[in-house]
Amino acid sequence: MSGLNAFFRPSGCAVLGASRDEQKAGHQILKNMIRASRCGGDAVYPVNPAGDEVLGRKSYRTISEIPGQVELVIWAVPGNFTESVLADMRARQEERGDLRAVVVVAAGFSETGSREGVRREEMLVSCCREMGVRVLGPNCVGVIDTSSGLDTTFILGTELLDGGVSFVSQSGAMGAWLVESWSSEIPPVGFNKFISVGNMSDVSIIEMLDYLRDDPETSTVGIYLEGYEQGRRLAECLRSLSAEKPVVALKGGKTEQGARAARSHTGSLAGRDRVYDGVLKQVGVCRAHSVSELSASVQAFDRLPAPAGRRVFILTQAGGPGIYTADLLMSGGGVERARISDSTRRQLRDILPPFASICEPEGHADITAAATARQHAEAAEAILRDDGVDSLILVTVPVTFVPAEDIASELLDVVHALRKDGIDKPLLPVLLAGRPVAGGVRMLDEGGVMTFETPDDAAGALLKITDYYARGRG
Amino acid sequence: MSGLNAFFRPSGCAVLGASRDEQKAGHQILKNMIRASRCGGDAVYPVNPAGDEVLGRKSYRTISEIPGQVELVIWAVPGNFTESVLADMRARQEERGDLRAVVVVAAGFSETGSREGVRREEMLVSCCREMGVRVLGPNCVGVIDTSSGLDTTFILGTELLDGGVSFVSQSGAMGAWLVESWSSEIPPVGFNKFISVGNMSDVSIIEMLDYLRDDPETSTVGIYLEGYEQGRRLAECLRSLSAEKPVVALKGGKTEQGARAARSHTGSLAGRDRVYDGVLKQVGVCRAHSVSELSASVQAFDRLPAPAGRRVFILTQAGGPGIYTADLLMSGGGVERARISDSTRRQLRDILPPFASICEPEGHADITAAATARQHAEAAEAILRDDGVDSLILVTVPVTFVPAEDIASELLDVVHALRKDGIDKPLLPVLLAGRPVAGGVRMLDEGGVMTFETPDDAAGALLKITDYYARGRG
Hints:
Two copies of one chain form a homodimer. Chain A is an alpha/beta fold and 474 residues long.
C-alpha cells in the first residue's frame, strides 16, 4: 500500500478546528467531509478546544481523546497553534499509533516568507516525519476523492459525481474554480480526485503525480503548475505519467508579471516560459492556454473515444458558427479536413435539404436552418460511417421548429446504432446557446454523449486529443 | 426620417406565414412580435392562406385585407411564393401606399447559387424598389429592437432588456448565439438592437452601420463580418462609425477553410486575413478573436467608464487565478502595471491580513483567502483612489466564510462612495465560480457594477477598452 493512500481512503478522520461558527473554514470542512462520506461521516470526528457538539455530532477536545481509529488529520486551526497540535498528534501516535497523514489547510507557514513561518513549517515536517505521518500542505485546500467519498476542502457546492479526470493544482483556488464550474454545469460533470499541494513541505507534486499514474481510477490527469525547483525530476515524472495516460497542463507565470506573482504566491521559480513549453512537448504533456481549454480537454480525454487519425469533418446547421469553428480548428494546426467518399456525398445530397452546401469546402457541410432533427442525425451517421472521417464536430443553433431535445434524441439513436456496428469515433456536439438548449444538452450528456458549450471548447479539445493520439501512433 | 426607420419602429406589421403550427418559423416570429410589443401586439397582423386565427388573434388571407396601417412586412413563407407575395404587396401599395419595408426571413434566393434563386431575388428587389419598399435579407433573421419593442426573429428566449450595445451580423445564427447567451446570463444582459443582414440584396451592412452611427440609442457597435465586395466603402463606413462610438468586430473566414466556407455561406470573398487586420486597425475598429471576447468587450464599452490611461492594478484573493489574470493581461499587450503611492501601500498594509502580498510585483496584490469581505472592499477603494491607477481587476473565489453576497454588498458601498467623490474608474470584478457565486454576481450587476465570468473575459475586455481610449487620446 502506498504511503499516500491515507490521504484518499483513510480509516477515520479528525477535523481540527471544526467549529460551530459557520464563518470558519473548519465548519465548512466538517460539513463537506460528512456530505462526501458514503457512511454518513460516522468516522469523521470534530475536534475543537471547547468540545462543542458540531453539526449534530460529538466533538473532542483533542485528537488523543477520539475513541475510533484516526488515520487522517485535517488541520484547520491557525498556524500559531502548531506546537500544541503537534504535541496532541504525538500523544495520540505514542498511545495508538494509527495516524498516517495530515492535510494542513492552515496558512501562516513558509509561504509568508517570515522567519517564524519557515520555522513552524520545519518543525511540522520534522515532527511528522518522526511520527511516520505524511504532510500535505500547509497552505493547501487538500483532497477531494469522489470515489472513496472524501472532501477535506472548504470548496462550496461540489457535486461528488464519478469521473475519470484527476486534477493536481499548485493553487487551491484554481482547483476550486474548476470544481465549482464542473459542479455548476447542466448536468454537473464528475471527476475522480482533486489534490491541492500547497507549500509541498513534505508530499510534493511529483509524488502525487506518481500516485495518479498508478491509480486505476484516474484515466486523465489535469495539472495547474506554477513551478518546481527540481525541473529535471518533474520532467521525468511527467514523461512517465504521460506514457500511461493523457496529461493536460496549464502553466501559471507565463509572463514576467505572472512569474513574479507566482514567486510571491508559492515561492516557485516559474522559469522561462519557452523552456517549459519545450519540455512539456518533449515529455508528451498537452499544454492548455486557458482554464476553459484545460477543462474541456481533460473531460474530452476521459469521455471521448480516441480518434484514429487527424481527419475532422464539420457538420453545421448554422453558417456563421460553422465558419467560426473551421477557423478555430484550422488555425490551431494538427488536424486535416476529412475527405468523404463519392457515395457518402450522394447520400448527404439525398438526405439533406435542397440548398445544403456539401463539401464546399472539403470536410465541411452546412445543412442550413431548414434541416430537421432527423436530417441532423442522418447526416451525422453517414459522415461517421465514412472511412475517410476520424472525428465529427456538429454545430447547431436549435430553433423552435427543431427543438434541441429532438436533435438530442435523434443523435442518441445514431450513436447507439453506430456503436452496435463497432463504430465509435469522437462526435462533438455544440448546441448553441444558453437556456433554450439546456434540455437537449442534458439529454445528450446523460445519454453518454459529451456536449460542448462553445465551438472554442470543442475545437480546443479535439485538437488536443487528435494530436495526443496521433503522436502516440508515431 | 431615415428610410430604414420602418425596420425598427414600424406603424403596423404583417407576419406572412404566421401559422398555427408551432413547428413553423412564422408561428415563433408572431409569438416573438407579440411578446416584444409594448402594446400587446395590437398592430401585429398574422397573414396566412387559410385565414386561421393564430395565437388568439384574427388572421388575414392577404396583406391587402389588413384594415390597419402596415409599414413593415415580415416574410416567413418559402421563396417559391415570391411572385404571389409581391403581387399582394403591390395590390396593397397601390390601394393604401403604406408599406415601407420588408424583412425577408425566407431562404431559397441567391444564397442557393441556383439560377432560380438568383432570378427570384432580382425580382424581389426590383419590384420592391418600384414600390418604394426597402428589403432586409432575404435569408436573414431580421431585427430585434428592445427599445421600440420589436422582434422579427425566431430566436428563442430573448430577454428584451435595454442596453446600449447594437449588433450587426452577416450570420443570423451568430446573432442568435449572442442574444441567447446574453438572455441566459444571471442576471440577463440587455442590448439595444440586433440586425441580421442576410443576402444584402437591397439594404447593405454599410447602410445599417451608418444607421447605428446616427442612432442615439446605440452606444457601442458589435459586428460579425464575413466579407464585403466593396471593401473600400466598408472601410470608410467603419472609420466614420468608430469616430462616433466604439466598434468591435469579429471576422469569420480567417483561415482558408473558413474563408471557403464563408464563400458558400454568404457568397462573401473573405479576403486575406492580414489585409482585414490592417484595415480594421487603421479605421479604429477593435478586433475580437472569439465570441466571448466580442461579447465581453461590447458590454464593457457600454457599461464601464472610460479608463484615463493604461495603468491596471490586479487585486486578487486567490493566488493562482491572480497569476492567470496577470498572464492574460500582460501577454495581450497595451496595458501597464499600475504603480501605487507609498501612502496607498501603507494603507493596504494596514487594511489587509498580515500575510497579504502587496505590490510584489508592482500592480498586483494578493490579499489571500484570509481576507474578509470588508478587506476586499477597503483594498479596492484605496487602490481606486490612488492617482497612479486607471483601472482595477478584482479576482476572488468566495468561500463559505466570505460569501459572495457580502463581497458584493461591500463593493457596492465603495463604488457609491467613490462616485460621490467624482471617482469613476473601471472596476472589473471576477467572482469565481458557478452557482456558489451567483447571488453576489446578481447583486453587483443589478447594482450597476458589471461582473465578468472569467479572468479571460475581464482581461480581454479591459485590453480593448484601454487601447481604444488611449488611442483616442493619441
